[in-house]
Amino acid sequence: MASHNEHKYTPTTKFDYDLFVVGAGSGGVRAARMAAGHGASVAIAEDRYFGGTCVNVGCVPKKLYVYASQFSESFSGSAGFGWSVDNPRFNWASLVASKDKEIGRLQNVYDKLLRDSGVHVVNGRATLVDAHTVKVGDKTYSAERIIVATGGWPFVPDVEGKEHIVTSNEIFNLPKLPSQMVIVGGGYIAVEFAGIMHGLGVDVTIFERGDKVLRGFDEDVRDFLIAEMTKKGIKFMFNTSVDKIDLQCEGLTVHTTDGATIPTELVMYATGRVPNTKNLGLEALGVALDEVGAIKVNDDYQTNVPSIYALGDVTNRVNLTPVATAEGMALVNKLYASKTGVVDYDNIPTAVFSQPNIGTVGLTEAKAHEEYSDIDVYKSEFKPMKNTLSGSSERTFMKMLVVRSTDKVVGMHMVGPDAGEIIQGMAVAIRAGATKAVFDSTIGIHPTAAEEFVTMRKPVA
Predict the structure, then answer these.
(1) pTM of whole model > 0.85?
(2) Suppose 27 and one of 96, 149, 158, 362 were both cysteines; which one would form an S-S bond, judging by CB atoms 3.0 to 4.6 Å apart?
């Protein structure tokens, strides 16, 4: 190890490491690399896979599978543009193999990034022994500070027959593609996988115990997405809860609490995620957890045990990959570079890779009306240009919320192709405090869907 004198950060400790990070997902890797860059001696432990949920069983494979599933509509829509694509066929095993190859590449990238920054990588499950000690296998490591960044894990309620179901952890590597499936849940994972599997030729039904999917999203966005997905042939059973799941010789039978029985080949539970805090030794140390097992932290990501910190999904606040990396940077800058930047959790843009996509930033209409007495609502709904020839009936929806007295734009929502790409730029405008007048004076790029956001002239009554 290089002598500490040549580094920017000068530790005063008698420990093996200045920092020990538990979990090599997005937040943990960023924190470890940056701390090492500032001159701290750092170790990181990972018992599953480098890159965490996002790289392995989350955003990355999900988006690749979304792309795969969109080809079915591209092939059928190509005829209107003069193409004839005869008898396209899909091979599930081939997609899984391509995905595995790309994820293997990314895992190696994360591993190399850590080692190149001088972080000591420990493979195995870490548990906390005391406020300054971590155990991995039969080895213990002492550290001045410990960061817990162990992420989240799919939550499955205690339903009879739960051993027969899959979650987002297993869905990417099914031995074969089913002909039909039931997805239980109504969050973003449920609607994303409904679109993926439907596009790959699977007959999909969503069971949701509420009366709509995507609780917490803008009501117009929820309604519009349900209508578009229904048009594609995805079935919804709202106000429906599962009583039990039976294994039959020809497949599974789902029994609902109102007495219906639905035969299916596969049942996927997408009923939320919980913080991954079990069996880490946190309770024995007295680290405070909330009722769902999330680690409680203050504004500096510090737990009630001063040497132990936590960030990312394990704290169950804003469970998004870029938020975890931002938290890792903010914490390390404070600890090892004497910089005091905090993560601003307002106006965080987000996308749902449903089909059609959702992009959103700022307040929903309901929240806007709670916060302001004078909200103007602008809406637009249209058939995207591509669909004038493709034959697809899919439509696009856009919405903007403006405070009348200040002209400030406080919320933007879109359902349609490339919504995530478009809303990313809109998020910059909202964070910069753009007014409706700024949008109105911006010249649109024609012909695009995005230009609609700068040509909305009249609020809805």
Answers:
(1) yes
(2) 149
